[in-house]
């Protein structure tokens, strides 16, 4: 009886180092000060104190990660940043529970600590429901809850709601400044307060920069290609270069209800349409619905980015490794520039593309033209591929790009893992639009 291959996930060393730094290395210097200076009477409290410090530093890291540092995006990807953000936030909550249970406080220190704690509970709960789309696939009822919440809370409101983490940080800072045996540790208090001030100042500057000094563009054309997809061409001279497969955040500052930024994949290569970027936007929430209904030539658009890992993921692997693409619906948008950029390399590329309706098979003519010149045959159909059809495309030594709805991404990843494909040879961005 043949043995089933087991896929072993190998994480890039850069990602391992980032996670190790965020979880362990960065908080360590802050914990060293109390361990070195706290009086003998309170040394039995060092373990819960350390837990509280780790929780607080992780909260500060969440604030910093909320700035979407581009250099970090190019290492672990923005989805990876969001996962790290979620793990740090949830981990901080767990440590705070332990800290409060083992080391109760009194008076104003107790009040500020408890308010910070319940604020953090609310933030984590909201983030799990509203932001962690992968949970929908594990707990289907959450999709219904999220859909209802999205109707009640508009996109901009939820963005501001998540910034309540700043309130939790300030309250937690007040908490340890009010604990009598901690406030006497001058070196610790100064270090923590200065670090807090720097992180909050950086966050404020980044948000101001993105709002006031973002690259400004203008909608050149808006074409509705189906009853829920619009193709938009945005001219943005300041954004003249990006990597294939990248995405940017768009906001429309002069349109009601569209002041918050939203991620969209760029569906063309730099210079392909002059200074313009092409987007295919499907209705998926209040922001995209407004964009679908109101998009028109002449609208001002602010562009933040670019972000993305497609080009760097492909560059990490052998230059001759075959590429297999599984795409669904508007998930094809980052794939089009990716395969076009690889034209002329004689690299085997297989595209498995599906959509719910025929008019949702975007850029089918471009795919056919690409296949004619490159001797590749894109596989396109309306409706899902069978598991057998998907598995037939598995190729020795290939790398796999998966782009589409979260359910499709989950199913394809599971299928590949069952057939022994390591996770390190798969790439996907769960919020491709």
Structure description:
There is one protein chain. By secondary structure, the chain is α/β, with parallel strands linked by helices. It has 18 helices and 11 strands. It has helices at 13-25, 28-37, 46-65, 70-76, 78-102, 107-130, 134-138, 141-152, 155-162, 165-178, 180-183, 186-212, 286-294, 310-315, 335-341, 364-374, 387-391, 406-418; strands at residues 215-224, 229-235, 247-251, 262-265, 276-282, 300-307, 323-328, 349-355, 379-382, 399-403, 426-428. The strands form 2 sheets. The protein has a 6-stranded antiparallel β-sheet. α3 runs antiparallel to α10. The protein is elongated and about 80 Å long.
So what's the overall shape? elongated
Poorly predicted residue ranges: 1-9
The topology string of helices and strands comes to HHHHHHHHHHHHEEEEEHEHEHEHEHEHE
What fraction of residues sit in β-strands?
15-25%
Work out the oligomeric state of the chains in this entry.
Answer: single chain
Q: How much helicity do the residues have?
A: 40-55%
Class per helix and strand makeup: alpha/beta
Counting DSSP H or I runs of 4 or more residues, the number of helices is 18
State the strand order across the main sheet: 4-3-6-1-2-5
Overall number of domains: 3
Q: What's the N-to-C terminus distance?
A: 44 Å
The chain-level mean pLDDT equals: 86
Rg computed from alpha carbons, rounded to a whole number of angstroms:
24 Å
The main β sheet shows up as:
6 strands, antiparallel
**Overall number of strands:** 11
């Amino acid at each position: 009886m043949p043995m089933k291959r087991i896929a072993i996930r190998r994480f890039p060393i850069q990602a391992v180092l980032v996670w190790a730094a965020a979880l362990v290395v960065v908080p360590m210097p802050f914990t060293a000060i109390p361990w070195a200076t706290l009086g003998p009477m309170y040394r039995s409290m060092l373990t819960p104190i350390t837990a509280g410090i780790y929780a607080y530093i992780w909260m500060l890291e969440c604030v910093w990660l909320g700035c979407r540092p581009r250099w970090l995006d190019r290492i672990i990807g923005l989805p990876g940043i969001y996962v790290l953000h979620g793990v740090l936030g949830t981990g901080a909550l767990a440590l705070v529970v332990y800290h409060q249970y083992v080391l109760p406080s009194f008076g104003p220190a107790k009040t500020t600590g408890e308010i910070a704690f319940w604020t953090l509970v609310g933030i984590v709960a909201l983030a799990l429901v509203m932001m962690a789309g992968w949970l929908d696939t594990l707990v289907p009822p959450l999709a219904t809850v999220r859909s209802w919440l999205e109707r009640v809370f508009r996109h901009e409101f939820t963005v501001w709601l998540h910034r309540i983490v700043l309130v939790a940080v300030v309250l937690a800072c007040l908490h340890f400044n009010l604990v009598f045996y901690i406030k006497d540790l001058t070196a610790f208090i100064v270090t923590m307060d200065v670090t807090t001030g720097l992180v909050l100042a950086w966050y404020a500057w980044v948000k101001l920069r993105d709002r006031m000094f973002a690259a400004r563009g203008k909608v050149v054309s808006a074409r509705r290609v189906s009853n829920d997809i619009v193709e938009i061409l945005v001219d943005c001279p300041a954004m003249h270069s990006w990597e294939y497969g990248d995405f940017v955040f768009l906001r429309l500052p002069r349109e009601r209800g569209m002041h918050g930024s939203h991620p969209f994949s760029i569906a063309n290569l730099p210079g392909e349409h002059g200074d313009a970027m092409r987007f295919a936007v499907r209705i998926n929430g209040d922001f995209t619905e407004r964009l679908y209904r109101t998009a028109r030539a002449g609208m001002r658009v602010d562009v933040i980015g670019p972000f993305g890992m497609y080009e760097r993921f492909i560059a990490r692997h052998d230059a001759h490794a075959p590429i297999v693409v599984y795409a669904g619906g508007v998930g094809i948008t980052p794939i089009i520039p990716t395969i076009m950029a690889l034209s002329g390399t004689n690299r085997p590329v297989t595209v498995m593309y599906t959509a719910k309706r025929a008019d949702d098979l975007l850029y089918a003519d471009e795919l056919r033209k690409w296949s004619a010149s490159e001797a590749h045959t894109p596989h396109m159909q309306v409706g899902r591929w069978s598991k057998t059809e998907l598995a037939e495309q598995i190729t020795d030594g290939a790398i796999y790009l998966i782009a589409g709805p979260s359910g499709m991404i989950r199913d394809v990843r599971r299928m590949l893992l069952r057939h022994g494909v390591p996770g390190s040879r798969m790439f996907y961005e769960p919020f491709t639009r």
